[in-house]
Design brief:
57% helix; mainly alpha; 72 residues
Length: 72
């Protein structure tokens, strides 16, 4: 599922729960879909340093929270 994550560890249940919140977040969803604009810039700038949900999304899915989902 997706690219390899930063570590070879399997994501924990907590990681999956936090990533689910990122999947449902209206700002992150808009950023993934539009790939431009304020929401995209905002998510791209905060995902690695601030947001625990975006960090978990990357651990679970192997891609950044702002990156477009293939086939979606």
């Amino acid at each position: 599922m997706g690219r390899k994550t930063m570590s070879d560890k399997e994501p924990s249940q907590l990681d999956r729960s936090l990533a689910r919140l990122c999947e449902l977040c209206p700002v992150c969803r808009h950023a993934r879909k539009s790939q431009q604009g304020i929401a995209f810039s905002f998510v791209k700038s905060i995902e690695g340093d601030v947001c625990p949900f975006c960090k978990a999304y990357e651990r679970v899915h192997g891609r950044k929270a702002h990156e477009m989902v293939e086939g979606g």
